[in-house]
Amino acid sequence: MDVANLLAHTLSQDQALREDATQKLQLLAQENYAQYSLMLIQQVANDQAEDTIRMAAGLALKNSLSAKEYTRKEEQTNRWLQVDADTRNQVKQGALLTLATPRKLVANIAGQLIAAIAEIELPLQQWPDLIRIVLENVTNTDNAALKMATLQAIGYVCEATDPVCLQRQSNEILTAVVQGARKEEQDQEVRLAAIRALNNSLEFVKENFEREGERNFIMQVVCEATQSQSSDVQVAAFECLVRIMQLYYDKMRYYMEKALFGLTVAGMNNQEDEKVVLQAIEFWSTVCDEEIELKEEALEAAEMGETPEHNLYNFAEYATGDIMPVLLWLLTKQEEDEDEDEWNVSMAAATCLSLFAQCVRNNVIGPVVPFVESKIQNTDWRYREAAVMAFGSILDGPDDTVLMPLVDQALPTLINMMTDPVVNVKDTVAWTLGRVSELLIQCIKPDIHLRDLVSALVLGLQDNPRIVGNCCWSLMNLAEQLGPAIGEETPTSALSMYFEGISTALLQFTERADNESNCRTSAYEAISSLVMFSANDCIPMVQNIALTILDRLDQTIAMENQIIGADDRAEHSELQSSLLGVLTNCIRRLSRDIASVADRIMTGLLHLLNSTSKQSTITEDAFLAIGAMTSALEADFARYAEPFVPILCTALQNPAEYQLCSIAVGLIGDLCRALGEGVTVYCNTFMQLLVSNLQSPVLHRTVKPNILSCFGDVALAIGEKFEPYLDVVMMVLQQAGSMRAEKDNFEMIDYVNTLHEGNVEAYVGIVQGFSGSQKVAVLLPYMQGIFHFMNALALDPNRSDSLTRALIGLLGDLADAFGPQIKQFLQAEWIPHLLREARTSRHYGTSTKETARWAKEMVKRAAQ
């Protein structure tokens, strides 16, 4: 087999040739991976081969070793480790030798390949001489190309590999990297690679940063790099400073005073390269991010009567007076035809200004308001837009009492500016009005401002598609802030008198065929919000909206077979998704009133779900609509269960589509609540699929807590008929209940809390389902395991408020259901301690405290 030809064909313009070559290479990898990897590395290391072939070979080999998806990655890792040691060494040697090629792009791919192998082997203490070899390339050569390629490889290895695996060699890595990053290094490409490698190594050089001398040297090298003649090196150096601020804020006080403040201001004033300016702005955004978090931590510590764990130096506060004028000037650097999706200096400055407002709060007002007042009527549109952007950016942070007089004064001007001749200005005005609606709704007086504001926003729908999104967002915020809370019945609201006009304008707008700038999607989202937060006097109009949406959904279903191209299919799916979103909210808002068109809705939804061309997102949206139907119709949903359940089961049989799977699990819960004992006929199938999914290696872990909780929903619905499933479910719950998180792994702590909450909810459903039935005693043999699990949770210092509340609720349910029969378990010492802690500690909310008082009474009665 001529691998070089196959690789060439994978790059061909001819689709058939390209697909055939790709399939043949995949087949070779499946049949004999060792041979496949040897053939590819020979191409990578072959200096006589064309660069494109060498790069294609390197990329194919790297991709066969590293995947983003966990299960695939695990398969690839195991496959590599099963290759014989001699073959693996030949591949590694070939990759290392290729670093010396003068072909920079090929050398770069070799570095990525080395990192992919290192990610697998270094955690297993394999390839022990890798770091020594690559460091020799940097320190013992005058070959600039080899030095650069090796530094790139070191950077990739540091980025890909678990930092723990590299800590023992941190001194050696740091020495080599810093040597390449120094100002004495004449080759700027080498210096760039070194700075990037340093950035990737920052996480595992913590011990070096603890030592003042080493820290000073690292900081000196990075600061000097911000002054390089190469703008790429400057950008990389500022990126490095951003990462240092994230990781080592507590060590930055001295450097902020001596260097960083001046360097970053100079960077923001750079006239030559926008990328330098962006990274200098990002530095101050990061400072604000860190200090916002530290202030929250200090506030929590003060509430607990404790000392904060970390120091807060208030860098942003001290710098406000000097940084603000620069940020405000940068706001005026907009481009007239700028791409909304392309990050630029004015966007970055606005984001940074917003973070400053959240960080320094009232202190941001002084420097910003004079700029707004002096520039908002300027004849140059850039200054008008910058003034409005500055005003909108500071509305989240300062005290409402400080902001309200300013907003009162500005609101009429802002509303009038919705007719500005420049689209950029109108777009920012619409966004700022949305911010006011979201954050300071009390400033919008219904009798003074609302008519003009609504008129301006509705008129904006007829303007450039670019501003429609922000007009719709503003209308959504008005609906949410002025309407009743979800589930609350209110006769009327301040927005009721405008409801028909707004909804009619939005429905007319959504009749457009295209979705430029996502404007049609935004309009449908606004309709959804209007519906969801409508008062009772708008119900007839919501009914009309539901009928209009149903008509449109039927039209899209009728068009299914006429759509051919992939782009048309994507746009059609997006439209159906928007329609289903509005329909779902109409069903939720109308509740039982939807019954008159239930047959029509379910016919359409079932047709959508059965159509062969459906996308998973459409299935998800249709499932959400059906979930709303189960809640609205309750037991009357039974007539639709038979045609729907097979579709639901199909979704559960595809754990790889985990978001769809999660919605499907939630739908089983919805069916249980709606049908009660009527769901029994489907339970065998449901339970088999749920248990099977729990055991699936493919299923995303976030779905598993929902499955555990769903066991409780099923038990609560069918009561004692749950008995056949008890043994399996209790075993699964015991396994899940034994899971623990490492104390410093906060992501895992959150997940385990969620998992245990699902566990507790399952136990609650089972206990409540059997409680009062003749078979309640079948649960007694499981009591020891349940109380052992509860005891372990009670002793867990990382237990969340919601998990504590669920745990105490379960304790009360058990005491209530079994009384004196479980007296021996209720006398355990941890129980009164847990209940006392929940009632008295400031860590817990009112709801948890009330649950604890009730549970205390239940335990007291049962233990008498």
Automatic annotation (TrEMBL):
MF terms (GO), sorted A to Z: small GTPase binding
Domain Importin N-terminal per the UniProt entry, residue ranges: 21-101
Keywords carried by this UniProt record: Cytoplasm, Protein transport, Repeat, Transport
GO biological process: protein import into nucleus
InterPro entries in alphabetical order: ARM-like, ARM-type_fold, IMB1_TNPO1-like_TPR, Importin-beta_N, Importin_beta
Subcellular location: Cytoplasm
Regions that span the bilayer: none
Example of a GO cellular component annotation carried by this entry: cytoplasm
Family the entry assigns: Belongs to the importin beta family. Importin beta-1 subfamily.
Name of the protein in its database record: Importin-95
